[in-house]
Amino acid sequence: MVCEINLQASEYLKYSKPTLKLTSVNFLLGRNGTGKSTLTRLIKEQLQNEFDVRIFDGFESLLDENRELNAVALGRENTEIQNQIKDLETKIQATKEENDDLAEKVQEAKSAYDSATKKLNNAMMNAAKDIKEKDNPRIAKTTYNRIDYSKERASAQRLSPQERTAFEEEAIGQLLKLPVALSSIPIDFQKLKERANGLLTQTVVESVRLPEFADNPQKTNFAQRGMEVHNRQKDKVCAFCGGELTQKRWDQLENYFSGKVTAFQTALNTCIDDFQTLENSINKITQYDSSSFYPSLRAQVADLNDSIGKSKEVARETILSFRTALNGRKDSLFQQVPPIEQVEWPDFKALTDIAQQLIAEHAGLSNTVRCRQDLAKEQLRYHHILEYEKKYEIVKLDQDAQKCETESGKLCKQKEELERKLSDYQENLEKLFGQIKDESLIAERINKYLRAHGEIGFQLVLQSEAERGFYSIQDSDGNIRPITKLSTGEKNIIAFVYFMEAIKAPRDTDKPFFLVLDDPMTSNDDTYQYLIISLIERYYVPLLYDRTTKNNHRGNQLLVLTHNTHFYLNVRPYKNNRFSDKIQYIHLRKGASHTQVVCVSDQKDDIHTSYDELWEELKFAYAENKPEFMWNSMRRIIISFCEFNNLSLNTIIRKSSDKLDSVLCGAFRKSMDVNSHELLDCYSETNGSTCEQIRGYMEQFFSGLNHSEHYAAHWCEHKDPGKSS
Predict the structure, then answer these.
(1) d(CA 401, CA 119)
(2) Do residues 256 and 208 lie in contact, with contact meaning Cβ atoms separated by under 8 Å?
(3) Which of 36, 500, 520, 623 is the 20 to 30 Å CA partner of 657?
(4) Long-range Cβ contact pairs of 302-310 (< 8 A, separation 24 or more)
(5) Which domains does the chain have, with CATH numbers?
(6) What does the pLDDT look like over 709-720, one tens digit per residue?
């Protein structure tokens, strides 16, 4: 059965296709932000009349703190199946004991390997310490350690005396620190100006009329000040005139100054305070010390400082005019004041932009000096590494560690085979549990899964026969504890098992199921993940082969959404059953203005490994005309390729520099720097390259290594008639 989802119904997120057809079993891979949750909502809205739509999107909707799971039918296990389960559990126990014996041998081998590795690490740590402490020039970062040394061993090479002297001179240089940006202004002057003018022109009407004030603001303010300095309960005589302060007079004054008058005074004070805050933020904007910039920028810095000084003076004058007017209105609460319209306010954002541009140019000059220094320091480190390899006998220690690792690996492989046998037993056991038809409690099924995990110290316990479906959490000592003590992963696995079991309960509808599993493996470790995969496989296999089961899978549909490539690769059927008219694979990729929806119809177009995904990202960036994204994907592909084939990227670049484009060589060299994972320097030099040129660089690289077939196979003859070189 095929159903169609109207993707245009999404109000905010836009998809590349107007509709999406879903078949019996659907697997969707998409990173966060590509619209998986939006698609789930559209399915619920558009298919709920035709299907019994069930959505799993975490434990929150299924598990409450010390609350019921859900009301579900309970049952009893079949006696014959239970006997088979006991026999299989006996075999599992015997296999576990055999596995424990082998585990001791594995531990001994690992201990020997750990000892050899420790000696090797200590030697490399001493060598790294010597390199880190070398001075005049300093050739390593202050955090240089054993790991850094290990990564650079393959690049070790001896320098001639002349080369060493030249690199030492190059490594000595002076860098200026990066200046800080201008302070920001947190208050919008235009909005504050409008608020102030509104207060200046606002009409305030007296609540009651007191003739003795005679429209005299000074008398009015004097009376209000008198109320502030006198206490109604304690003071009976006016401190100014000596007259009696009667309760009637207090009532008259309070009525006069209450309500809108007080609110207006508060608004005036707040506005005055905001102008003070604005002035304080402007005062924090300081001029730059020209000497903190490189000489070529100092004239521009002087001009900027002059503009800053003038702008601050203009701003202070404008603020003063508003504060004076607002204070005057405080003295004349019932008299309007003309608004202040013709004022000058500097463009501080423009000054900030100029400062940022100067700082960026300063950083660029620093990078030029830093790049030469880094290259020289790198070559000097490689020279000294070769010396310390001999001094600390690191090569011999490395060989000893590799020998121990081989022996440990051999035993580990034997243990893996035994664990695979144990896994088969566990799988058969799960099949038997799945065949239980009569009176099986879902809570008991959940407890079986938890006990099978082996390290979970709790179980679900029915509180009483009268409260069926209301379960407590009982630890291994028999104590009851709240569900809030469970971790997120534990809650998630309980909820997921419950979800998959609950759909087997009797329903009051004949509608087929449409199951949506939205990132079901969130916050679970590897063991939980494979348990989840097993439960999903048990559900979708009947959908693919039209098998009639007790739950009547005919007409049911499944959509599994995930952002995790590893989970996506493992939850699908095996290769020979992967593509048919009943199964579909969908990829969501975030573009500049929309999410691209890719329906994979052939196995060769699907994601196979994380390495394949990098190629897909590269081709996607090419199709979207995003050269800056292509550079990062290309770097990661080449580094992964070199590491997998035990190739030295630095050596390849040095030997192939006459064959490769100069831009490409420069980018690769900088990818070997300390901060290569960010590739900032590379981007700054190559942002002028087009997507087609970058693709050509990639093709050149693999062609230079005689791996053109590898490039062609992964690029898959990508065509885009709309692109030009």
Answers:
(1) 9
(2) yes
(3) 623
(4) 304/351, 304/354, 304/355, 304/358, 307/351, 307/354, 308/182, 308/351, 310/346
(5) 1-70+482-603 (3.40.50), 189-366 (no CATH), 609-724 (no CATH)
(6) 888 878 864 444
